Amino acid sequence: QVQLVQSGAEVKKPGASVKVSCKASGYTFTSYGISWVRQAPGQGLEWMGWISAYNGNTNYAQKLQGRVTMTTDTSTSTAYMELRSLRSDDTAVYYCARDRVDNWNDVDYWGQGTLVTVSS
Amino acid sequence: SYELTQPSSVSVSPGQTARITCSGDVLAKKYARWFQQKPGQAPVLVIYKDSERPSGIPERFSGSSSGTTVTLTISGAQVEDEADYYCYSAADTKGVFGTGTKVTVL
What we know:
The complex is a heterodimer.
Chain A: E1 3-6, E2 10-12, E3 18-25, E4 33-39, E5 46-52, E6 58-60, E7 68-73, E8 78-83, E9 92-99, E10 114-118
Parallel strand pairs in A: 2-10
Antiparallel strand pairs in A: 1-3, 3-8, 4-5, 4-9, 5-6, 7-8, 9-10
Chain B: E1 9-12, E2 18-23, E3 32-37, E4 44-47, E5 61-66, E6 69-74, E7 83-90, E8 95-97, E9 101-105
Parallel strand pairs in B: 1-9
Antiparallel strand pairs in B: 2-6, 3-4, 3-7, 5-6, 7-8, 7-9
């Protein structure tokens, strides 16, 4: 069965960086992409961006351009999302989700989420 | 526009029908998906391609589309269907989630 297992909760200070991992199993990793979505406390879902696990192509949300980097390691079927220059409003649960290999049209299975808290 | 608008809340009695709408210009050209999210849990896909139901999703969940609006219908809502529901569509340059609807079954 498809599983996406994310890394554990993080507490960071403003200005720091965080890197969240998402280990996939139960499917051929390079035949799909990974989208990242975040959810601030009590708020809705926000699409952050997408990466193809086949060729590494990416598409980031405009508001995060320059602060976010998404990568994959095909040898371990793991996707990573790094967010830099953290601010208090980056406090959220971050989710990875399986998606199409060529675009962000078909989000289906989700990871369990990783809480990132940004606080001084 | 790249916004998807949903009602903030819908309330139904058990066994009744709940309908949740999602409106946005992008829906005239792109399919929508619907996700169910219960407190403290990750979202779960309940409808894709406007009206297709993934395996394991109860038949009481259905979807439809008309112009720039898609609708998720829960026929014979159960107490366990109480959750937040989000529509999603992929615009040319980004993914977009709806504003979310809290469904209360009581």
